[in-house]
Design goal:
110 residues; alpha+beta; two-stranded antiparallel sheet; 2 helices; heme binding; Cyt_P450_E_grp-I; oxidoreductase; Cyt_P450_CS; monooxygenase
């Protein structure tokens, strides 16, 4: 299978030579499935062997944090006043840091 040809196929990619990350917004294509559109990014036999490990190392700690703590904003802060402006760089991040208070969660046995 010619990954280079798929990467440039107008059937799958409008303006394939341009960097347009928004083209993936709302996509129903699953990178783990049999969709050949993602072959240029690594799929099949040549797919990154660590992708499942990497995903688990992001999802599991996040799930543990969400399960074991209740989260609230510092006193005086309202959710509608939190600045969610993005800052552009090598990676995407928030322009201003988000500060939260973690309160340990203990499930009741009632």
């Amino acid at each position: 299978m010619n990954a280079s040809a798929i990467r440039r196929d107008p059937e799958y990619w409008y303006d394939a030579e341009s960097f347009i990350p928004k083209r993936f917004d709302g996509s129903s294509i699953d990178y783990k499935g049999t969709d050949f559109e993602y072959i240029p990014f690594g799929a099949g036999r040549r797919m990154c062997p660590g992708i499942a490990f990497g995903m688990a190392n992001v999802e599991l700690p996040l799930a543990n944090l969400l399960y074991h703590f209740n989260w609230q904003l510092p006193s005086g802060k309202q959710p509608e006043n939190v600045d969610m402006t993005e800052a552009f760089g090598a990676t995407m991040g928030k322009k201003n840091d988000l500060y939260l208070i973690a309160i340990p969660f203990t499930p009741s046995l009632s």
